[in-house]
TrEMBL record:
The protein, known as: Gluconate 5-dehydrogenase
PANTHER family associated with the record: 3-OXOACYL-[ACYL-CARRIER-PROTEIN] REDUCTASE, SHORT-CHAIN DEHYDROGENASES/REDUCTASES FAMILY MEMBER
GO BP term, pick one: bile acid metabolic process
Protein species of origin: Butyrivibrio hungatei
InterPro entries, alphabetized: NAD(P)-bd_dom_sf, SDR_fam
Family indicated by similarity: Belongs to the short-chain dehydrogenases/reductases (SDR) family.
């Protein structure tokens, strides 16, 4: 009998920022492999809709849990709810994030910079800390995937975003630090660095003729990422197939960071 290297049957995945966009796409990808899903975000109506759709379509268990990942209390409570419901969290995808807008560095306000870091970096750490402490370390098993960005690896001169770059660069090295600390506890910690993908947050910018010309010039594949093209990376890093993959920073960017 052939082995299914990507079988996630009865695993439980907690995915932050799972009310729209890439978070929902990755949740559906994991559910397609049999994984139970916990959709986490601030807007209850949206995560409840996501959970309902996933449960009906993929015949897995799925729930929505509201959480503001900048709040330690919220994060701890959310993890407690999942543990009470499922008794385990096998996979954490730290996908929640924000974009602070195109503001040149010299005009960035303190609140703008600090807000970006609080969500993208500190929030990811708070969630990883709680999940590892309450679920993964006791189980001596876990898969943590931090969603960083190609902008966590390089700078750019088309869309000023110094706060975003700083926060996502922090996520990249947070990944390495946690991978180093928790690798001997049965937990792997890796990061995916997406390139340009269309989401509700990016659609208007990516649709502009200016940005499309930029993509044709700067992306070797001369296009943006399509819906579903992040899924295989998320499935692989969540699965038993990635047992010895730890501390890896994986760009999924059409070759942008190769230039």
């Amino acid at each position: 009998m052939e082995k299914n290297y990507f079988d996630l049957t009865e695993r439980v995945a907690l995915i932050t920022g799972c009310s729209s966009g890439l978070g929902v796409q990755m949740a559906k990808a994991l559910a397609s492999q049999g994984c139970n899903i916990v959709a986490v975000a601030r807007r209850k109506n949206l995560i409840d809709e996501v959970a309902k759709e996933i449960a009906e379509k993929y015949k897995v268990k799925a729930i929505g849990v509201t959480c503001d990942i900048t709040s330690t209390e919220n994060v701890e409570n959310a993890v407690d709810i999942v543990m009470q419901k499922f008794g385990r969290i096998d996979i954490l995808i730290n996908n929640a994030g924000t974009g602070s807008g195109a503001t040149v560095a010299e005009n960035v306000e303190d609140s703008q910079f600090e807000g970006e870091v609080a969500i993208d970096l500190t929030g990811s750490f708070k969630m990883a800390r709680a999940v590892a402490k309450k679920a993964m370390i006791p189980a001596t098993y876990g898969r943590i995937i931090n969603i960083a960005s190609m902008y966590g690896l390089v700078g750019n001169n088309i869309a000023p975003a110094v706060a975003y770059h700083a926060a996502k660069g922090g996520v990249v090295n947070l990944t390495r630090a946690l991978a180093s600390e928790w690798g001997n506890k049965g937990i792997t910690v890796n990061a995916i660095c997406p390139g340009y993908f269309e989401t509700p947050l990016t659609k208007e910018t990516l649709d502009s003729e200016f940005f499309q010309q930029y993509a044709r010039t700067m992306i070797p594949m001369q296009r943006y990422g399509k819906e579903g093209e992040l899924d295989s990376a998320a499935i692989f890093l969540s699965s038993p197939a990635s047992t010895y993959v730890n501390g890896v920073i994986l760009p999924v960017d059409g070759g942008y960071t190769a230039m």
